[in-house]
Amino acid sequence: MSTDDGRDGTRSADRVLALYQELRLRGVSDFDQVFQEMELPPEEYERRRGELISLGLIVPTGTTHATRADLQAGTWESGPDTVAVVDPEIALLRMLQRERERLREHLDESDRAYSTLETLVGRFLRPGSLSGSEVEVEVLDDYRRIQQVLEDITDVIQHDLASMHVTALVREVADRVLSRDLRQLDNGVRIRAIYHQRISAVPEAAEMLRRRVEAGVEIRLSPAVPMNMIIADQQFAVLPVHPQDRAAGAILARGPALVRSYLALYEHCWHTATPYGDDVSPERGGDGLSEQQRAALKMLASGMKDEKIARSLGVSLRTVSRMLSELMQELGASSRFEAGVRAYRLGWLD
Questions:
Q1: What digits encode the pLDDT tens for the residues 105-135?
Q2: Rounded Cα gap, residues 121 and 117, in angstroms
Q3: Is 40 within 8 Å of 19 (Cβ atoms)?
Q4: Residue 149 and residue 59: Cα distance in Å, rounded?
Q5: At what angle do helices 291-301 and 317-331 cross, to 10 degrees?
Q6: CB-CB contact of 230 with 163 (8 Å)
Q7: Contact call for residues 251 and 137 (beta carbons, < 8 A)
Q8: Considering the chain, what percentage of its residues have pLDDT values greater than 70?
């Protein structure tokens, strides 16, 4: 009897695994269609679907995806039987996170259990161990899949979330982001975000920035934001396939060996941006600059060397050195790179 039961259990697990593997190949697909194509027993449909959902390996979706909160509250109403696949490592981390939240509700006994689980998580799910390979890259061309990936990643962040945005978020997305901010900040996550400085002139966007800052998010503004980007725990990075074409899809990069490079770009943008709320106004506003000084500043900001600036302006190298030293003093900059950045930020190069 036990042998037959074991054999049936193995066959059942094999069917669930085969079904999940096929769904994962498709990313977002119709569950019923895949089930029929695989010619699985019809009476197992609800059981297999329920098993995959309970394990967190698939999420019902339609024109929008179901968030974890929607599923827990029972408010999700799906249309066609379309599901989005969740990566197994994300499902595992979510399961651990849910257990941690339940354990917090218990007093002394829960403290001991939580401490034990925290030790296990730190030992077996350290950064870099989520994937069998050092680096993994996936191209996402389905909007629902992109949204699901963002939901997955931000749901399991433990330490740091860094993002940059070319444009402001629409009201509905902004409200969702603020709610997520509060949850992550409560868990001790550091959240940083860079926006293009022009959005602060839009009242609705400025209100969104103010609310995020009040919640504890670190916000900076920059005159130049190269692309949308999200980096989580030096482990995940999401960025566009084509920075100028949002419809082209997104790239999901996993593994610190690759993500560290994106983080270096982010840190450069972060240090050259201005903290939101800091009013920087030059004493003379650049009105007193000569055309020669303005041209020298533009070439300096572009990274041009002194020798090339001198040739372009038709003056001596000594003249260029003196001119740039005067401009650095005017801008209150301690380096030529900082002088170029400050001149651009203050609008002296417009």
A1: 665 566 666 666 666 655 544 444 444 446 7
A2: 6
A3: yes
A4: 11
A5: 80
A6: yes
A7: yes
A8: 75
